[in-house]
Amino acid sequence: MNSFAEQLRPFFPYFPSGLISARCLDQIESVTQHLPEELGVGPFMFECGLDARPAADFSVAVIASRGDHAALSRPGTTVTRDAADWSRIRRYARSWADPSSALSGAVDEAWLEFDVGLTGAAPCTTPSVFVGLDGPAPDLSREHVIRIARECLVLLQGRPLPPGTLANLTECFALLPAGARILFVGAMLSRRSDAVRVVTSGMGLADMVGLLQQLGLRRAEEHLVRLVEAARMADDLWLAIDVDAEGVGPRVGLDCYCDGDGPNGRTWAGLLDHLVDQGVCTGPKRDALLDATDMSHRTFDKGWPERLRRMARILGPNGFDRMALYVHHIKVIAGPGERLEAKGYLCGTYR
C-alpha cells in the first residue's frame, strides 16, 4: 500500500456499506494509488449518488501554498495506459509550480476528479482537472483570468481550445452579473470531451436563468424551475454548466450549500428530507450520509498512518489531531426529459 492510500484508508470504516460499497472503496484506492503522498492529508471528496446504488466518484485537492503542484509534477505520478494523459497533467503542474509562470500566484488550487463507480462504465485512472480561478490574487482583471483559464486548459488538453469553445467561454466571463464570479474551469479528461465545465457563484436563480438564456440555452427557465425548491433549502448556490463550441450543454447542475448555524437555519437534514420527498434521494441514503459525518466530532490518533503521526508530533499543538468528514455540498442536476439527479459530497481531511 502506498502512502497516499495509507492516509485515505482510515476514512473507509466510517462509510456505511449502503452509501459506498467495499468494492467501490477498493476501486477508489486502486485508481488513486499513484498519487503523491503529499495529497493524502486532504481535503478530498467522496461524491455519493443519492439513489439506491452504493457507488461514488472521488476527487482530491492540489494546493499550491503547500507545494502540492510540485509533488504532482514529479515523474511516477502516472499509470502506463494513461501515460499521455498524465504527461499533460504533470506538464500543467510543472508550469503551475514555476515561479516565472503566469499560473504561479494566480491559481491556488486544483482538484483531480476520478470517475470510479458513479460515472462511466468502469473506473478511470485519468482524472478530470478543475482549476480554481478564485485564488490568491483577487485583483486580477477579467481579461487576465480568461488568459489564465485558457493557458491551463491548453496545457491539460494538449491542444488549443476550439475557437467556438474559447468564444463561448469568454462570453461566460463577459456576461456575469455584478458580484458573480467563475470559481473553476474543468478539463473533462476522463470523459474524452472537449467541453469545459464552468462553475460559478454569486448569483440567485433569476440571474442564473438570465445568464443561461444569454448563452443560448433554450428553455433555461424550464430547467431551473425544477430546481427552485431545492434552491430555497440552501444558503448558497453554485451553478455548474458545460461549455463547448456549440454553446451551453443541456444539463444544469446546482451545488447547494447549507449553513445550519446561519441566520436562516437551513440544514443538510432539511434539504435531504426535501430530496427524499421528491423521490431523488432514498431514505437510507439520507440517513447514511448524515451518519457518516458523525466522525467529524471525534479526535483520532490510533490507526493513523505513521507519516501523519510523525508530523503531528513535530508540529505539536499546531499539528493534526483529528480526521474530519462532513457534508460539503449537495448537487442537484436537471436535464431535458430526465429525472432530477442528486449527489452528496462528503469532504474528508486531516486537521
What does it look like?
- This protein has a 10-stranded antiparallel beta barrel with strand order 1-2-3-4-5-6-7-9-10-11, surrounded by 4 helices.
- It has one domain.
- It contains 12 helices and 11 strands.
- The chain is of the alpha+beta class.
What is the strand arrangement across the widest sheet?
Answer: 1-2-3-4-5-6-7-9-10-11
What is the string of helix and strand elements? HHEEHHEEHHEEHHHEEEHHHEE
Q: Tell me the domain tally.
A: 1
What would you report as the Rg, rounded to the nearest angstrom? 20 Å
* Gross morphology: globular
Work out the helicity level. 25-40%
Overall number of strands? 11
Q: Percent of residues in beta strands?
A: 15-25%
Separate helix tally: 12
> How far is it from the N-terminal to the C-terminal residue, by CA?
23 Å
Low-confidence stretches: none
Structural class assignment: alpha+beta
* Mean pLDDT, all residues: 87
Largest β sheet strand count, sense and barrel closure: 10 strands, antiparallel, barrel
Topology:
Layout: H1 3-8, H2 22-31, E1 44-49, E2 56-63, H3 68-72, H4 83-97, E3 109-114, E4 128-132, H5 142-157, H6 163-175, E5 181-187, E6 196-201, H7 205-214, H8 220-225, H9 228-232, E7 236-244, E8 247-248, E9 252-257, H10 268-277, H11 283-292, H12 306-315, E10 323-334, E11 341-350
Helix pairs in contact: 4-5
What would a concise description of this structure say?
The chain has 12 helices and 11 strands.
Q: What would the keywords be for this entry?
A:
single chain, 351 residues, alpha+beta, 10-stranded antiparallel beta barrel, globular
